[in-house]
Amino acid sequence: MxxxxxxxxxxxxxxVLPGGISQRMLTLTVRRLERDGLVARTV
Length: 43
Description:
Elements: H1 10-16, H2 23-35
């Protein structure tokens, strides 16, 4: 849901997600979303 609101930096996502999320889990999740064509990630 948070990504549907527009471009977000990695740390912004980590901060706003309820309950917190580890850096590793967020990285894996964003990579999977990118692989599935749901998000575009820029390094």
